[in-house]
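A common beginner's mistake is to predict each chain separately and then try to dock the pieces by hand. The better habit, illustrated here, is to supply every component at once so that their relative placement is modeled jointly.
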Amino acid sequence: MTAGPAPHAHRHLAPTLRPALAPLPADPDVVVVGAGSAGIAAARRLLARGLRVAVLEARDRVGGRTLTTALRGHPVDLGAHWLHAGPINPLVQLGLARGEPLRRAAQESHLWVGRRRGRPAEEAAFARAWSVADRAMSDGARLGGPDRPAATALPPGLGPWGRRVALVHGLVSGRPLGEVSLHDFPSMEYGDNHFVAGGYGAYLARLAAGLPVALAAPVRAIDWSGPGVTLEAGAHGRLRARAAIVTAPVMVLRDAVAFSPPLPDPVRGAIDGFSAGIYEHVVLHWPSAPFRGRDRLASLTEGRLQPPGLLTRVDGTPFHYFELDAPLAARLDAARAGADGARRLVRASLAEHVGRGLLGDLAVPAVTEWRHDPWSRGSWAVVPPGHAGARDLLKASVGDRIWFAGEALSRLQWGTAGGAYEEGERAADAVAQALG
Ligand SMILES: Cc1cc2nc3c(=O)[nH]c(=O)nc-3n(C[C@H](O)[C@H](O)[C@H](O)COP(=O)(O)OP(=O)(O)OC[C@H]3O[C@@H](n4cnc5c(N)ncnc54)[C@H](O)[C@@H]3O)c2cc1C
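With all components supplied together, the output reads:
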């Protein structure tokens, strides 16, 4: 643990919007730890229920793992960008009600096989591999039995298309499917996606406007030995309240916050058992990319280097996201290659598929490193095989004084800002009920 506010990975990239925040009340009923999606949701819900709230945020900005910054004059998301699962995502429903500039994500995508565009028969084979693999994993999870790696449910014989499906599932899961619980699989819900013009981070920042948030106030210790809770927040000193909602990522809770008395063993076990999901954006500015159409995913298959994920022409601009999965990020880290290593990897991968000639105007203005940021330590929490009960276990209060919330607790929308928001509201309702 460090003494002052620790630096965080993207601090040189300022948010496009810093909302005006309210001062903390003198005697809060509830302290919310963290002003990401879950913390913002919890604070809004608690205030709506008439409770006094203080939010303590470690970074010098709100939004957590959502952050919209300006690159070459365009708002670009460095964290969450997709509003997944429209019908069940509270941020879609709220956005529609508020008149936020939402739009549906395109269904069309690009398939590239080696150095050429995919043929209709190849597209059909790829689509078939998706549905066979998804059905096998959903069935494997539904049938119960001992938990096992999601990869073991994949039918053999799907060939290269099956390997591509497994690679993409590993990317969006945050870890290769061999390290992901099969029983957690049905919670992956990615249908009916949306985007918000101006960025997801800016949308969350608008939702934080007027909330009582102290920035640069990292909570180091939570004492729940008495009737309420006492929190130590660095230079902000000590805050007492009747209850706390803790939304710091579980990867951060492993050792950055001391609980006294220690958390009950099952709760501690649930927190420590998650693994860190890795998903990083390498942001490309590439006007002459051969991909047409706005917001389309591109699968570049065959060849030595296959990008696990590529979102092209983001918001109809020359920006694209080249995504790094856990194995690629680990390779860069092992070689201590940093952002320049990521740039070299991108160039080599794209050159293999489109030729060097098209890379003349390719620039890489940002490479994210959420995995090295002390306030996230990863992109989202992953349930390894055998740990499938952890999300639900963390929903119960600790001693009717501490509630956890955040993306890690969401069963149907884990790893998403929408899931985090829903969990923040759930925890706020539980606290409000407990406090009467
Ligand atoms: C590159 C990337 C791409 C992603 N893409 C998508 C996407 O397209 N769609 C999607 O829905 N989701 C996506 N996600 C995941 C999404 O960003 C997260 O699931 C979601 O934002 C998590 O919200 P949260 O409130 O649970 O946690 P956070 O947003 O991490 O909020 C927790 C807050 O707590 C603060 N904090 C931590 N420790 C302390 C402490 N000790 N004291 C005080 N404050 C503390 C943190 O600074 C942070 O502000 C992506 C994530 C990454 C990294």
